[in-house]
Amino acid sequence: xxxxxxxxxxxxxxxxxxxxxxxxxxxxxxxxxxxxxxxxxxxxxxxxxxxxxxxxxxxxxxxxxxxxxxxxxxxxxxxxxxxxxxxxxxxxxxxxxxxxxxxxxxxxxxxxxxxxxxxxxxxxxxxxxxxxxxxxxxxxxxxxxxxxxxxxxxxxxxxxxxxxxxxxxxxxxxxxxxxxxxxxxxxxxxxxxxxxxxxxxxxxxxxxxxxxxxxxxxxxxxxxxxxx
Length: 228
Known about the structure:
Helix content: 10-25%
Strand order of the largest sheet: 8-11-12-13-14
Shape: elongated
Order of helices and strands: HEEEEEEEEEEEEEEEHEEE
Distance between the termini: 109 Å
Number of domains: 4
Mean pLDDT: 74
Number of helices: 2
Radius of gyration: 31 Å
């Protein structure tokens, strides 16, 4: 009986101790604090379940089953490893990507995504001294050349990690001119049957190539289709 009584008293004392720990934070600045709401690092009273004020470092895998939110002016989320070292800034609900950033799998971006000048958006390609194929297959690039021009480039099918030769196929200049650049290919306009052409909602300036009947180029002028 005496043992049971002392054991129960010890349990109550430990419960009271943990209650005090949960209510009153402990530790020095920069250490971990356990408050009535959650765990905080770098400040004495957490306002969320878990907060880190200042730099935080994770080794291994960090798994989130809901939303990981990066807030505040010039907040940073650093990704490193596998040759990728980039920062994602999230000021005022915008996202600014600096350095080389790779998205694997399905990635959804909402709102404004800002890229610096002289940026590339690569498809099945990466840059390491020169452009290389990420996986086997075709590659492409959309490039902003720093003076306001948007350049579209493609590469033939290649092998993973092999050099990729990107060829400019089209450019949109900073004054809005579209320039199709090629000495080995040609412009191909939409090709369709007569029934498909006549089913279009006509607009002056349209051009198609009809593949059946009286085949050839048809232009929509003054409210009607005209063969040239």
